[in-house]
Amino acid sequence: MSRHQRRRQSPLRPRRLAAPPLRFFMPLSLLACLLALLVLRGLATNEAFHDSRIAISVDKTTVPANLLKGGPIIDARGARNEHPVSYHVPDRTAVLSFDDGPSPEWTPKILEVLAARNIRADFFVTGAMTTRNPELIRQIVAGGHELGVHTFTHPDLVYQSHARTSWELAQTQLALAGVAGVHSALFRPPYSSDATAMDDWNYPVIKYVGARGYLTAFIDRDTDDWKRPGVNEIVKAAMPAKPGAGALILLHDAGGDRTQTVAALVQIIDRLQAQGYRFTTISDALGASSATVPVNGFQLWAGRGFIWATQFAVLTLPVLVGLLALVGFLNFGRFALMLVLAPIHARRSKRRDAWGPPVTRPVTVLVPAYNERECIANTLHSLAASDHPIEVIVIDDGSTDGTADIVEEMDLPFVRLIRQVNGGKSSALNTGIAAASYDIVVMMDGDTVFEPSTVRELVQPFGDPAIGAVAGNAKVGNRESLIGAWQHIEYVLGHNLDRRMYDMLGVIPTIPGAVGAFRKEALRRVGGMSDDTLAEDTDITIAVLCDGWRIVYAEHARAWTEAPASLQQLWSQRYRWSYGSMQAMWKHRGAVTSRGPAGRFGRLGLPLVVLFGVVAPLLAPLVDLFLLYGVLFGDAPITLTSWGGFILLQAALSWYAFRLDREKPWHLISLPIQQLVYRQLMYIVLLQSAITAMTGGRLRWQKLRRTGEVGVPVEARP
Amino acid sequence: MSSVQPGSPRRTDPGSSESGFGESAPAPVFVDQSGLRGRLLRGFGWPVSVVGAILAVAMGSSLIGVQADAPAMGIPAQPSRSPAPSPSPTRSTPATAVSSSSSPRGVARSATPGAGATPGAKASATPPRTAAAPSKAAVTAPKPATTAQRGAKPSGRPAKQP
After folding, report:
1. Whether residue A405 lies in the annotated active site
2. Segments of A494-627 assigned E as strands
3. Chain A window 333-362: which residues touch B at a Cβ cutoff of 8 Å?
4. Size of interface A-B (CB pairs under 8 A)
5. Does residue A227 come out as left (phi exceeding 0), alpha (psi in the -120 to 50 range) or beta?
6. pLDDT exceeding 70 applies to what percent of chain A?
7. pLDDT tens digits, one per residue of A198-211
8. Has residue A431 got a pLDDT over 90?
9. What is the gyration radius of the CA atoms in chain B, in angstroms?
């Protein structure tokens, strides 16, 4: 297990990544896959890269007159790129072309009509619809019809760069290769019309596309069927202007209600055949080889891979959205619970006699200390100012910096010093509990500073004999730095608002180690502090709850702690906290099926803590994933607006929490950055500690039992 | 709750997968002394992550769009515009500039349904092709000399060959 025993390093040195890289590589690779899946699915549904601008028509000064007056099929390939030529559909020949498909509602009907009359037609399909309906493409090819490229996302190519245009073509060819193993040499730009509609803006597009080898097919007859003008209108518009002239007819097989199109199609075919027309495809009308060409090799397999991945993405998205909804539901649910329960708690706290007769008897204050020589004096002086009679027991846990000597030198009358061999915080507290003279025990940290009223406020609830423990109000002292401000916000919003909510539900899971009070009786009944977990405060609180005692939150019992001042120390602390909490939750998992008060915690408190403390943070990366996708590939303004709305909601709730705690709200200025950086830090920490929990590694703070190896957390030093 | 002396670390039975009661004291929760769980997960995790990374890269590269060019498609020389009902596709006329002229319509662009309103004027004046005056087969002259007579046109440029 030596891999997991990291060397003890000074917190001042930059910390090397001692963890195996798999624990970072695996989540990153998973997230990269999810992002790729999101983009693929967004492409298929025309959500990603969508450009809905349509250009107006402009002058035609650069378009050669022969093209403007020529046929609908423009050949600008190869040597002809400088001087493109145009082809006509021969006389007595009609070509039906269907744009924007294939769609499952209309294309099959159209294919049926065509098959019944043994007619072949052209289908100008978009890449997006192709990836969504691969089977229809295969049916089109099997029916002998011709495929043409109509771009992937249907943008107006006038507004797109060459790179984008090239991408649209390539991606569509990839899709066609993937679903039917073919490429197409035909192209029709979106929003196109007949040859006279070429102008200075779209002519360069045609030349560029021609340079890539495509034959651009405009139309002769625009039926405007997408406007649904009525079957008669559509049929009339499809008739050639001059009887007997060739006609390339435009119809649509997707994008709305095409019942008129299908009905008109039958009439168009019948009428034109009665006039002696034959129906065929573009390439056949020109006497050329088919424009739909089979592909092999890399293109084929790349296309197939693309289609498989897209289909998988379309299937996976509902799962991701469901998980995202779960995160949202958990977060908003927590907000709602807090908003409902916190005011009730605040009102109750105002009533000073809520707990029965006031508690005036002396209590014991335990101060476990390990290498606290800078802080211990402040701590003891603050206790000296307490307005409640106390006995202080300082348990020196084998300090190496002379903490015990300092305490001895201070020689305060109400302080007893116990030295012990280093055994960890739990064993130090247990020593103190054994030595305590009174029946109420207050626990604090060696670097916590109490106010004069803290102890008194903390022990008043013990006037109610059902109450077994009380949680105090830990405040961040060093809140001026950015990291300090973030933690300050988190303590006020997360910890305190949370604790009010849990208090009203009767399931407070954690009494802060910096300020908490217990009945000695309750501690005895549950067997004292344990070092099974790194979060002995959570462990003992849950144990006391399961024993049937009531635990409350005394918001007026304020204690000032020094929060970690650097990212490394913060990481360290949160790692211990999240890992330790998960240990405690797992240790007490039997409560779920217990009876009595343990069952109540197990079926109400434990699920809440697991949902809010583990599940929601573990799924939180999904929020960032969708945010990233929306900003980079989807609709950025809408995404940012909804994110902004969420931030506002958070800010409102935080402001309310600050008001309840009577804190000045100006620290909330750093809330947006906190949402961008701090939130990520927290879920990364949680993920890492979850991985450690699963792999069963030992953290450096978990001392090897009974070997005397030192493994106590290195606290922050100013 | 198990009976213990107060003041000593609790010796209960945490739910960790430890090496058994007979050996040294049980490990803290989650800690696996033998390292088995860790080895298993790592043995499973590396292949999964590598496969995932490869898939992510593959999916990303499928979006780059490499092969944009169209396949080859040969088009035989097209006949110049002929009034004959039956088209003869194999007339060898090198210049394929077809001489049919049509007066320019108004700016008529057909938009697809899903795209919203079509901007621009939709004044489509269909030039009636009335007199089907036969136009002679174009020769290799750069500019075909024949003009099809046109009937009355609405406004617009006259359909004359330059």
Report:
1. no
2. 515-519, 550-561
3. none
4. 324
5. alpha
6. 95
7. 999 999 999 999 99
8. yes
9. 41
Structure tokens at A364: 């014991």
Cβ contact A234:A112 at 8 Å: no
CA B38 to chain centre: 45
Q: How many CB atoms lie within 10 A of CB A559?
A: 23
pLDDT of residue A583: 95
Q: Helix, strand, coil proportions of chain A in percent (round to 5)?
A: 55, 15, 35
Q: Which of residues 66-125 of B touch A (CB under 8 A)?
A: 66-76, 78-79, 81-87, 89-90, 96-98, 100-102, 104-105, 107-116, 118-121, 124
Distance between CA atoms of residues B121 and B132, nearest Å:
30
| Residues 144-183, chain A, touching B (beta carbon < 8 A) | 149, 154, 166-171, 173-174, 183
- Which is more confidently placed, A262 or A4? A262
**Interface membership of A632 toward B (CB under 8 Å):** no
Q: Report in angstroms the alpha-carbon separations of A647 from A5, A487, A643, A651, B24.
A: 40, 17, 6, 6, 51
Q: Count how many residues are written for chain A.
A: 718
- How much is the pLDDT for B80? 66
pTM of the model: 0.78
Contacts of A567 (CB under 8 A, 6+ apart): A483, A681
Which CATH number is A65-295's, of 3.10.20.340, 3.30.565.10, 3.20.20.370, 3.30.428.10?
A: 3.20.20.370
pLDDT for residue A618? 92
Nearest chain A Cα to B14, which residue? A587
pLDDT at B95: 39
Q: Which of B40, B112, B150 to mutate to test the interface with A (most CBs of A within 10 A)?
A: B112
As a whole number of angstroms, the distance between CA A558 and CA A203 comes to: 75
Nearest by CB to residue A528, choosing from B7, B28, B112, is B7
User: Strands A182-184 and A292-294, how do they pair?
Assistant: antiparallel
Q: DSSP string of A126-185?
A: -HHHHHH-HHHHHHHHHTT-EEEE--SS---GGGS-HHHHHHHHHHHHHHHHHHHSEEE-
In this predicted model, what pLDDT tens digit does every residue of A83-121 receive, in sequence order?
Answer: 999 999 999 999 999 999 899 999 999 999 999 999 999
For A471, phi then psi, to 5°, come to -100, 135
Q: Which of A252, A345, A388, A488 is catalytic?
A: A252
Q: Known catalytic residue: A439?
A: no
pLDDT tens figures, A545-571: 999 999 999 999 999 999 998 989 999
- Please provide the average confidence, as pLDDT, over all residues in chain B: 55
ipTM for this prediction: 0.79
Contact predicate A197/A316, CB 8 Å: no
Per-domain residue ranges for chain A? 65-295
